[in-house]
Input
Amino acid sequence: MISHYALKLSSTVGEIVDEISQPQVDRLIAEFRRRRRVFLCGSGRTGLIVRAFAMRLRHLGIDAWVIGEVGTPPVRKGDLFIACSRSGRTASVFSFADLAKKEGATIAFIGERGSTPKGGATLRVELAIGGRAKAAPLGTVFEHALFLFFDSLVLRLMERLHQTERQMKGRHANLE
Output
């Protein structure tokens, strides 16, 4: 019986990721290639997904940091700051985005299609959640779509950066 719900959710999330604009993805990938460092920010469950993505970016050899973590260096001109928020209105996320913008970072926003990020963004990737949000409670559909999008993005970055799983394993934690 539980598999019915899992299939419905995975199908919904797959549709959302399938509808992400390819030009938006291409612009984001280009930014990864141009920037020396990437900073990511999200709140709540979205923040947990951001942390998982930052880990994979580091496995790819990209200098990636999560805002609010101990040891995160200062954001500087030339950095990429990725703000993740379904609504585009998460106060803490966009307070940090504003500060990063003042420091000269490029701001990317990943959120629901039609949402307007507080303070604007240089580039955006939109997830068409809409009425499909009803497939699961609260922000679950967005969170699952964000996770799947990030893992798919890692696969694209592996190709673009000519990284193999073996190379990534060499950057994986060995004290587990």
